[in-house]
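Need residues for this backbone.
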């Protein structure tokens, strides 16, 4: 049930982000979630998009170093303490969250959160058993 995340390595310089987003836009690819972590020279751009294969092809054609990995997407209630509840489930199952970020869009009743963990299947199992709903590629396509 994992969802695909694109990781793009980009130079930390003026115009890089507009270049990446322009490439995606021109290829009718919609960004659903994103995160960027930077160092002095480079950045790591993490994206959830509506068409992972087309995005990879378009960015690779412009010489961006890009890879696709599986991450966990979880629907949480859009209220104080709901993120804590999901993280607590993972903590009690001894699953480390390497990083997380939220979707740019949200539904009427839920927030969507992307989690990078060492074992996606274990994380999904404990979250589902605790009553959380997982985000699927079909959910992303509907946003």
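Answer:
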């Amino acid at each position: 049930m994992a969802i695909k995340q694109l990781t793009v390595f980009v130079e930390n310089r003026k115009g890089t982000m507009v270049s990446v987003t322009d490439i995606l836009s021109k290829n009718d690819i919609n960004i659903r979630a994103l995160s960027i972590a930077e160092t002095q020279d480079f950045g790591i751009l993490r994206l959830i998009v509506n068409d992972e294969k087309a995005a990879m092809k378009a960015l690779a054609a412009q010489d961006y170093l890009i890879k696709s990995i599986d991450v966990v997407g979880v629907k949480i209630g859009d209220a104080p303490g709901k993120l804590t509840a999901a993280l607590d489930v993972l903590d009690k199952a001894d699953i480390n969250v390497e990083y997380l970020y939220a979707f740019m869009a949200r539904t009427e009743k839920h927030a969507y959160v992307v989690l990078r963990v060492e074992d996606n299947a274990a994380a999904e199992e404990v979250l589902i058993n605790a009553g959380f709903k997982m985000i699927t590629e079909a959910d992303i396509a509907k946003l």
